UniProtKB/TrEMBL annotation:
Keywords (A to Z) from UniProt: ATP-binding, Nucleotide-binding, Zinc
Nucleotide-binding keyword on record: yes
Pfam families according to UniProt: ATP-cone
Protein name stated in the entry: ATP-cone
Gene Ontology molecular function, alphabetical: ATP binding; zinc ion binding
Domain ATP-cone residue range list: 1-86
GO BP term (any one): negative regulation of DNA-templated transcription
Length: 86
């Protein structure tokens, strides 16, 4: 899957970037997630993105899916921090 960046560049999808951003958001709200929690969230995010059946997704779409998944897992504070991140 390819990611369309805000500036129009296209690059490969790397789940490591999602892991890092979720960890940063959870650290910001002093609610660190376990590696297992992060892996479960990322797995669900990847599944939801694949279900979009698109070869390219925008960073905005990825952010929305991450926020939705974090909320579904009950990590509301982390989701809010993630939304305000960047």
């Amino acid at each position: 899957m390819k990611v369309i960046k805000k500036d129009g560049r296209v690059e490969e999808f790397y789940k490591d970037k999602i892991i890092t951003s979720i960890e940063n958001a959870s650290d910001d709200v002093k609610e660190p997630l376990t590696m297992s929690d992060v892996e479960n969230v990322v797995r669900e995010v990847e599944k939801n993105l694949l279900n979009l059946n698109k070869k390219e997704v925008t960073t905005h779409e990825i952010r929305q899916v991450i926020i939705e998944v974090l909320k579904n897992f009950g990590f509301n504070d982390v989701a809010e921090a993630y939304k305000n991140f960047i």
